[in-house]
Amino acid sequence: MLQEIQEINIEEYAYELPEERVARFPLERREDARLLILQEKGEGNGIGNGIGNGVEFRESHFRDMPALLREKDLLVFNNTRVIRARLSFYRETGARVELFCLEPAGPPDHARNFAATGACEWYCLVGNARRWKGETLACRQSSGDNEWSLRATRVGTSGDATRVRFEWDAPLTFSEVLEASGQIPIPPYLGRDAVEEDLWRYQTVYSRNEGSVAAPTAGLHFSEEVLQRARATGAILEELTLHVGAGTFKPVKSARFGDHEMHAEHFEIPRALVSRLLSAPRAIAVGTTSTRSLESLYWMGVKLLLDIPSFNDLGQWEAYALPGNIPAREALEAIARYLDETGENALRGRSRLAIAPGYTFRLVEAMFTNFHQPRSTLLLLVAAAVGERWRELYARALASGFRFLSYGDGCFLRIAGK
Fold this sequence. Notes:
This protein is 24% helix and 27% strand. By secondary structure, the protein is of the alpha/beta class. The strands form three sheets. A ten-stranded mixed beta sheet has the order 2-1-18-17-14-3-12-13-16-15. It has a six-stranded antiparallel beta sheet with strand order 5-6-7-10-9-8, covered by helices on one side. A hairpin with a 2-residue loop joins strand 8 and strand 9. Helix 6 (271-279) runs antiparallel to helix 9 (328-342) and helix 7 (288-305) packs across helix 9 (328-342). It is globular.
Protein backbone atom coordinates (compact mmCIF):
# COMPACT_ATOMS: atom_id res chain seq x y z
CA MET A 1 0.00 0.00 0.00
CA LEU A 2 2.75 2.46 0.92
CA GLN A 3 4.50 2.03 -2.41
CA GLU A 4 1.23 2.62 -4.28
CA ILE A 5 0.64 5.85 -2.37
CA GLN A 6 4.19 7.05 -2.91
CA GLU A 7 3.84 6.35 -6.64
CA ILE A 8 0.74 8.55 -6.98
CA ASN A 9 1.12 10.83 -9.99
CA ILE A 10 0.11 14.27 -8.80
CA GLU A 11 -1.09 15.21 -12.30
CA GLU A 12 -4.00 12.83 -11.73
CA TYR A 13 -5.20 15.30 -9.09
CA ALA A 14 -5.19 18.38 -11.28
CA TYR A 15 -8.24 20.31 -12.42
CA GLU A 16 -8.83 23.65 -14.11
CA LEU A 17 -9.49 26.39 -11.56
CA PRO A 18 -10.41 29.69 -13.25
CA GLU A 19 -9.02 32.77 -11.51
CA GLU A 20 -12.48 34.25 -11.13
CA ARG A 21 -13.55 31.28 -8.99
CA VAL A 22 -10.98 32.04 -6.27
CA ALA A 23 -12.69 33.96 -3.45
CA ARG A 24 -10.48 37.03 -2.89
CA PHE A 25 -12.52 38.37 0.03
CA PRO A 26 -14.89 36.81 2.57
CA LEU A 27 -18.65 37.14 2.41
CA GLU A 28 -20.27 39.74 4.65
CA ARG A 29 -21.70 36.99 6.89
CA ARG A 30 -19.72 33.84 7.60
CA GLU A 31 -22.70 31.50 7.61
CA ASP A 32 -23.86 32.63 4.17
CA ALA A 33 -21.11 30.55 2.58
CA ARG A 34 -22.56 27.79 0.42
CA LEU A 35 -22.29 24.14 1.37
CA LEU A 36 -22.15 21.24 -1.10
CA ILE A 37 -23.20 17.96 0.50
CA LEU A 38 -22.14 14.56 -0.85
CA GLN A 39 -24.55 11.93 0.43
CA GLU A 40 -26.24 8.66 -0.40
CA LYS A 41 -29.46 8.94 -2.36
CA GLY A 42 -32.39 9.44 -0.04
CA GLU A 43 -30.11 10.05 2.93
CA GLY A 44 -31.41 13.53 3.71
CA ASN A 45 -29.78 14.19 7.07
CA GLY A 46 -26.44 12.47 6.68
CA ILE A 47 -27.59 9.09 8.04
CA GLY A 48 -26.43 6.07 6.09
CA ASN A 49 -23.91 3.27 5.88
CA GLY A 50 -21.17 4.86 3.80
CA ILE A 51 -20.80 6.24 0.31
CA GLY A 52 -21.79 3.59 -2.15
CA ASN A 53 -22.70 3.71 -5.82
CA GLY A 54 -25.95 5.59 -5.26
CA VAL A 55 -24.73 9.05 -4.31
CA GLU A 56 -26.10 12.51 -4.95
CA PHE A 57 -25.19 16.11 -4.33
CA ARG A 58 -27.27 18.56 -2.36
CA GLU A 59 -26.66 22.30 -2.16
CA SER A 60 -27.18 24.21 1.06
CA HIS A 61 -25.54 26.91 3.21
CA PHE A 62 -23.47 26.78 6.39
CA ARG A 63 -26.29 28.49 8.27
CA ASP A 64 -28.27 25.29 7.73
CA MET A 65 -25.52 22.85 8.67
CA PRO A 66 -27.14 21.84 12.03
CA ALA A 67 -29.67 19.87 9.96
CA LEU A 68 -26.86 17.47 9.07
CA LEU A 69 -26.22 16.53 12.68
CA ARG A 70 -27.51 13.69 14.79
CA GLU A 71 -27.85 13.68 18.55
CA LYS A 72 -24.50 12.96 20.28
CA ASP A 73 -22.47 13.59 17.12
CA LEU A 74 -19.03 14.84 18.10
CA LEU A 75 -17.87 17.91 16.14
CA VAL A 76 -14.16 18.60 16.50
CA PHE A 77 -12.87 22.13 15.83
CA ASN A 78 -9.31 23.44 15.60
CA ASN A 79 -9.04 26.46 17.91
CA THR A 80 -5.65 27.67 16.70
CA ARG A 81 -5.22 31.42 16.20
CA VAL A 82 -3.35 32.92 13.25
CA ILE A 83 -0.42 35.08 14.28
CA ARG A 84 0.85 38.17 12.48
CA ALA A 85 3.67 36.12 11.07
CA ARG A 86 4.99 38.48 8.35
CA LEU A 87 7.69 40.93 9.49
CA SER A 88 9.23 43.49 7.12
CA PHE A 89 12.75 44.90 7.44
CA TYR A 90 14.69 47.27 5.20
CA ARG A 91 18.43 47.22 4.55
CA GLU A 92 20.41 50.44 4.40
CA THR A 93 20.17 50.19 0.62
CA GLY A 94 16.38 50.35 0.89
CA ALA A 95 15.92 46.71 -0.13
CA ARG A 96 13.00 45.06 1.67
CA VAL A 97 13.51 41.71 3.39
CA GLU A 98 10.44 39.86 4.67
CA LEU A 99 10.66 37.27 7.43
CA PHE A 100 7.79 34.82 7.62
CA CYS A 101 7.77 33.17 11.06
CA LEU A 102 7.11 29.45 10.63
CA GLU A 103 7.93 27.62 13.84
CA PRO A 104 9.45 28.55 17.22
CA ALA A 105 13.07 27.48 17.65
CA GLY A 106 14.08 28.90 21.01
CA PRO A 107 12.15 28.34 23.21
CA PRO A 108 10.87 25.55 20.95
CA ASP A 109 7.23 25.54 22.06
CA HIS A 110 4.69 28.18 21.12
CA ALA A 111 3.50 29.14 24.61
CA ARG A 112 6.96 29.84 26.07
CA ASN A 113 8.18 31.50 22.89
CA PHE A 114 5.25 33.90 22.73
CA ALA A 115 5.81 34.74 26.42
CA ALA A 116 9.54 35.47 25.88
CA THR A 117 10.76 39.00 26.58
CA GLY A 118 13.81 40.63 25.03
CA ALA A 119 14.77 37.83 22.62
CA CYS A 120 13.67 34.57 21.01
CA GLU A 121 14.43 32.51 17.90
CA TRP A 122 12.23 31.28 15.06
CA TYR A 123 12.54 29.28 11.87
CA CYS A 124 11.53 31.64 9.09
CA LEU A 125 11.06 31.79 5.36
CA VAL A 126 12.99 34.74 3.97
CA GLY A 127 11.58 36.85 1.17
CA ASN A 128 14.16 38.62 -1.00
CA ALA A 129 16.79 36.41 0.66
CA ARG A 130 19.51 37.23 -1.87
CA ARG A 131 19.46 40.84 -0.72
CA TRP A 132 20.16 39.86 2.90
CA LYS A 133 23.94 39.66 3.20
CA GLY A 134 23.93 38.43 6.80
CA GLU A 135 23.96 41.72 8.67
CA THR A 136 21.57 42.34 11.55
CA LEU A 137 18.36 43.89 10.27
CA ALA A 138 16.56 46.48 12.36
CA CYS A 139 13.34 48.44 12.25
CA ARG A 140 11.89 51.10 14.50
CA GLN A 141 8.49 50.48 16.03
CA SER A 142 6.10 52.44 18.20
CA SER A 143 3.62 51.33 20.85
CA GLY A 144 1.60 54.17 22.29
CA ASP A 145 4.06 56.94 23.18
CA ASN A 146 7.08 54.61 23.21
CA GLU A 147 9.49 53.95 20.36
CA TRP A 148 11.56 50.82 20.28
CA SER A 149 13.73 48.72 17.99
CA LEU A 150 13.21 45.19 16.64
CA ARG A 151 16.33 43.42 15.33
CA ALA A 152 16.74 40.18 13.36
CA THR A 153 19.96 38.18 13.03
CA ARG A 154 20.47 35.07 10.92
CA VAL A 155 21.92 32.29 13.10
CA GLY A 156 21.48 29.12 11.05
CA THR A 157 19.40 27.10 8.61
CA SER A 158 17.12 24.06 8.72
CA GLY A 159 16.01 22.68 5.37
CA ASP A 160 14.44 25.53 3.41
CA ALA A 161 14.00 27.64 6.57
CA THR A 162 16.37 30.14 8.17
CA ARG A 163 16.83 30.28 11.93
CA VAL A 164 16.50 33.90 13.03
CA ARG A 165 17.17 35.49 16.41
CA PHE A 166 14.83 38.37 17.22
CA GLU A 167 15.76 40.95 19.84
CA TRP A 168 13.80 43.99 21.00
CA ASP A 169 14.33 46.74 23.57
CA ALA A 170 10.79 47.17 24.84
CA PRO A 171 8.99 45.55 27.81
CA LEU A 172 6.90 43.37 25.53
CA THR A 173 6.38 39.66 25.02
CA PHE A 174 7.08 38.28 21.56
CA SER A 175 3.34 37.85 21.10
CA GLU A 176 2.97 41.59 21.66
CA VAL A 177 5.90 42.27 19.33
CA LEU A 178 4.13 40.40 16.52
CA GLU A 179 0.87 42.16 17.30
CA ALA A 180 2.60 45.53 17.00
CA SER A 181 4.95 44.79 14.09
CA GLY A 182 3.61 41.94 11.99
CA GLN A 183 1.03 41.47 9.26
CA ILE A 184 -1.60 38.74 9.04
CA PRO A 185 -0.33 36.12 6.53
CA ILE A 186 -3.23 35.73 4.15
CA PRO A 187 -2.62 33.04 1.51
CA PRO A 188 -0.47 34.03 -1.49
CA TYR A 189 -3.07 32.73 -3.94
CA LEU A 190 -5.43 35.55 -2.93
CA GLY A 191 -3.18 37.81 -4.99
CA ARG A 192 -3.54 40.85 -2.76
CA ASP A 193 -2.16 42.51 0.37
CA ALA A 194 -3.84 42.00 3.72
CA VAL A 195 -6.47 44.57 4.69
CA GLU A 196 -7.92 45.46 8.08
CA GLU A 197 -10.88 43.12 7.57
CA ASP A 198 -8.52 40.14 7.38
CA LEU A 199 -7.43 40.72 10.98
CA TRP A 200 -10.69 39.19 12.25
CA ARG A 201 -12.17 37.45 9.20
CA TYR A 202 -9.06 35.29 8.70
CA GLN A 203 -9.70 33.92 12.20
CA THR A 204 -12.40 31.52 13.37
CA VAL A 205 -14.82 32.90 15.97
CA TYR A 206 -13.46 30.28 18.43
CA SER A 207 -9.73 30.90 17.79
CA ARG A 208 -7.78 31.19 21.03
CA ASN A 209 -4.37 29.45 20.97
CA GLU A 210 -1.77 31.45 19.02
CA GLY A 211 0.56 29.67 16.65
CA SER A 212 -0.76 29.24 13.09
CA VAL A 213 0.50 30.94 9.97
CA ALA A 214 -2.68 29.93 8.13
CA ALA A 215 -6.29 29.67 9.25
CA PRO A 216 -8.14 26.35 9.53
CA THR A 217 -10.41 27.63 6.79
CA ALA A 218 -13.37 25.25 7.08
CA GLY A 219 -14.00 26.83 10.47
CA LEU A 220 -14.24 30.34 9.02
CA HIS A 221 -17.87 29.65 8.06
CA PHE A 222 -19.11 28.98 11.60
CA SER A 223 -20.71 31.94 13.38
CA GLU A 224 -21.63 32.01 17.07
CA GLU A 225 -25.29 31.57 16.08
CA VAL A 226 -24.57 28.48 13.98
CA LEU A 227 -22.51 26.97 16.82
CA GLN A 228 -25.38 27.54 19.25
CA ARG A 229 -27.86 25.87 16.92
CA ALA A 230 -25.47 22.96 16.43
CA ARG A 231 -25.38 22.44 20.21
CA ALA A 232 -29.17 22.60 20.30
CA THR A 233 -29.36 19.48 18.13
CA GLY A 234 -27.74 17.47 20.92
CA ALA A 235 -24.39 17.35 19.16
CA ILE A 236 -21.25 17.73 21.27
CA LEU A 237 -18.70 20.37 20.27
CA GLU A 238 -15.07 19.90 21.31
CA GLU A 239 -11.80 21.58 20.40
CA LEU A 240 -8.21 20.62 19.73
CA THR A 241 -5.27 22.74 18.65
CA LEU A 242 -3.13 22.19 15.58
CA HIS A 243 -0.88 25.06 14.56
CA VAL A 244 -1.07 25.21 10.77
CA GLY A 245 2.31 25.63 9.08
CA ALA A 246 3.24 27.21 5.78
CA GLY A 247 3.46 23.72 4.32
CA THR A 248 -0.31 23.93 3.81
CA PHE A 249 0.45 26.36 0.95
CA LYS A 250 3.32 24.30 -0.41
CA PRO A 251 2.30 22.81 -3.78
CA VAL A 252 3.33 19.29 -4.67
CA LYS A 253 5.98 20.10 -7.25
CA SER A 254 7.28 16.57 -7.69
CA ALA A 255 5.51 14.36 -10.21
CA ARG A 256 5.61 11.50 -7.70
CA PHE A 257 3.89 12.11 -4.36
CA GLY A 258 6.51 10.06 -2.54
CA ASP A 259 9.08 12.76 -3.34
CA HIS A 260 7.06 15.48 -1.60
CA GLU A 261 8.07 16.40 1.96
CA MET A 262 5.26 17.10 4.43
CA HIS A 263 6.02 19.78 7.02
CA ALA A 264 5.61 18.90 10.69
CA GLU A 265 2.74 20.54 12.54
CA HIS A 266 2.35 20.76 16.32
CA PHE A 267 -0.92 19.81 17.95
CA GLU A 268 -2.52 19.43 21.36
CA ILE A 269 -5.48 17.15 22.06
CA PRO A 270 -7.17 17.54 25.48
CA ARG A 271 -7.81 14.51 27.68
CA ALA A 272 -11.53 15.39 27.66
CA LEU A 273 -11.64 15.04 23.88
CA VAL A 274 -10.10 11.56 24.11
CA SER A 275 -12.96 10.57 26.42
CA ARG A 276 -15.51 12.03 24.02
CA LEU A 277 -14.02 10.05 21.15
CA LEU A 278 -14.39 6.86 23.16
CA SER A 279 -18.11 7.41 23.67
CA ALA A 280 -19.28 9.32 20.58
CA PRO A 281 -21.21 7.36 17.93
CA ARG A 282 -19.75 9.57 15.16
CA ALA A 283 -16.77 11.93 14.97
CA ILE A 284 -17.04 14.81 12.49
CA ALA A 285 -13.91 16.84 11.82
CA VAL A 286 -14.20 20.52 10.95
CA GLY A 287 -11.41 20.93 8.44
CA THR A 288 -8.42 18.97 7.22
CA THR A 289 -6.35 20.09 10.23
CA SER A 290 -8.78 18.51 12.68
CA THR A 291 -8.85 15.43 10.45
CA ARG A 292 -5.05 15.06 10.45
CA SER A 293 -4.92 15.60 14.21
CA LEU A 294 -7.50 12.93 14.98
CA GLU A 295 -6.02 10.40 12.58
CA SER A 296 -2.54 11.08 14.02
CA LEU A 297 -3.96 10.48 17.50
CA TYR A 298 -4.96 6.95 16.51
CA TRP A 299 -1.49 6.11 15.22
CA MET A 300 0.16 7.55 18.30
CA GLY A 301 -2.02 5.26 20.39
CA VAL A 302 -0.84 2.35 18.25
CA LYS A 303 2.78 3.37 18.83
CA LEU A 304 2.13 3.50 22.57
CA LEU A 305 0.71 -0.02 22.54
CA LEU A 306 3.80 -1.21 20.64
CA ASP A 307 6.19 0.60 23.04
CA ILE A 308 7.69 2.62 20.21
CA PRO A 309 9.81 5.54 21.48
CA SER A 310 8.80 9.10 20.60
CA PHE A 311 5.24 7.87 20.13
CA ASN A 312 3.94 11.46 19.89
CA ASP A 313 6.08 12.34 16.87
CA LEU A 314 4.51 10.82 13.75
CA GLY A 315 6.49 10.65 10.53
CA GLN A 316 5.13 11.20 7.03
CA TRP A 317 4.89 7.53 6.08
CA GLU A 318 5.04 5.91 9.52
CA ALA A 319 1.34 5.07 9.69
CA TYR A 320 1.62 2.90 6.60
CA ALA A 321 4.29 0.75 8.24
CA LEU A 322 2.41 0.24 11.52
CA PRO A 323 -0.09 -2.59 12.03
CA GLY A 324 -3.53 -1.38 11.03
CA ASN A 325 -5.60 -4.05 12.77
CA ILE A 326 -5.64 -2.43 16.22
CA PRO A 327 -9.18 -1.22 17.04
CA ALA A 328 -9.63 2.50 17.48
CA ARG A 329 -10.93 2.01 21.02
CA GLU A 330 -7.72 0.25 22.09
CA ALA A 331 -5.56 3.01 20.63
CA LEU A 332 -7.62 5.72 22.36
CA GLU A 333 -7.60 3.85 25.66
CA ALA A 334 -3.81 3.66 25.45
CA ILE A 335 -3.67 7.44 25.06
CA ALA A 336 -6.10 7.92 27.97
CA ARG A 337 -4.04 5.65 30.25
CA TYR A 338 -0.84 7.48 29.35
CA LEU A 339 -2.35 10.88 30.14
CA ASP A 340 -3.84 9.64 33.42
CA GLU A 341 -0.57 8.02 34.52
CA THR A 342 1.51 11.09 33.68
CA GLY A 343 -1.00 13.61 34.99
CA GLU A 344 -1.01 15.48 31.69
CA ASN A 345 -4.21 17.24 30.70
CA ALA A 346 -3.54 16.90 26.96
CA LEU A 347 -1.47 14.95 24.48
CA ARG A 348 1.08 17.23 22.84
CA GLY A 349 2.88 16.08 19.74
CA ARG A 350 3.68 16.77 16.14
CA SER A 351 2.71 15.06 12.93
CA ARG A 352 3.77 14.91 9.31
CA LEU A 353 1.12 12.32 8.40
CA ALA A 354 0.45 12.15 4.67
CA ILE A 355 -3.18 11.20 3.95
CA ALA A 356 -3.72 10.24 0.33
CA PRO A 357 -5.86 7.80 -1.69
CA GLY A 358 -5.30 4.35 -0.21
CA TYR A 359 -5.32 5.59 3.37
CA THR A 360 -7.91 4.04 5.72
CA PHE A 361 -9.51 6.49 8.15
CA ARG A 362 -9.61 5.28 11.74
CA LEU A 363 -11.43 7.93 13.79
CA VAL A 364 -13.00 10.47 11.45
CA GLU A 365 -16.34 9.49 9.90
CA ALA A 366 -17.32 12.77 8.24
CA MET A 367 -15.78 16.16 7.63
CA PHE A 368 -16.41 19.74 6.61
CA THR A 369 -13.80 21.22 4.33
CA ASN A 370 -13.29 23.92 1.70
CA PHE A 371 -12.46 23.44 -1.97
CA HIS A 372 -8.71 23.11 -2.34
CA GLN A 373 -6.03 23.88 -4.88
CA PRO A 374 -5.28 21.43 -7.69
CA ARG A 375 -2.23 19.22 -7.11
CA SER A 376 -2.30 19.89 -3.37
CA THR A 377 -1.91 17.59 -0.37
CA LEU A 378 -5.32 18.80 0.83
CA LEU A 379 -6.98 17.62 -2.37
CA LEU A 380 -5.26 14.25 -1.92
CA LEU A 381 -6.80 14.06 1.56
CA VAL A 382 -10.26 14.73 0.12
CA ALA A 383 -9.70 12.03 -2.51
CA ALA A 384 -8.67 9.64 0.26
CA ALA A 385 -11.97 10.39 2.00
CA VAL A 386 -14.40 9.99 -0.91
CA GLY A 387 -12.42 8.18 -3.60
CA GLU A 388 -12.91 9.09 -7.24
CA ARG A 389 -16.08 10.96 -6.28
CA TRP A 390 -13.83 13.97 -5.68
CA ARG A 391 -13.90 14.61 -9.43
CA GLU A 392 -17.70 14.81 -9.51
CA LEU A 393 -17.65 16.91 -6.34
CA TYR A 394 -15.31 19.52 -7.79
CA ALA A 395 -16.96 19.48 -11.22
CA ARG A 396 -20.34 20.09 -9.55
CA ALA A 397 -18.89 22.92 -7.44
CA LEU A 398 -17.39 24.61 -10.49
CA ALA A 399 -20.54 24.17 -12.58
CA SER A 400 -22.73 25.56 -9.78
CA GLY A 401 -20.69 28.67 -9.14
CA PHE A 402 -19.16 27.74 -5.79
CA ARG A 403 -16.29 29.92 -4.56
CA PHE A 404 -12.92 28.22 -4.01
CA LEU A 405 -9.98 28.23 -1.56
CA SER A 406 -9.61 29.89 1.86
CA TYR A 407 -12.41 32.46 1.72
CA GLY A 408 -14.55 30.27 -0.50
CA ASP A 409 -17.46 27.92 0.07
CA GLY A 410 -17.25 24.42 1.55
CA CYS A 411 -18.53 20.89 1.44
CA PHE A 412 -19.69 18.17 3.82
CA LEU A 413 -18.32 14.71 3.13
CA ARG A 414 -18.86 11.36 4.75
CA ILE A 415 -15.82 9.12 4.62
CA ALA A 416 -16.28 6.27 2.14
CA GLY A 417 -17.20 3.07 3.93
CA LYS A 418 -18.14 4.79 7.21
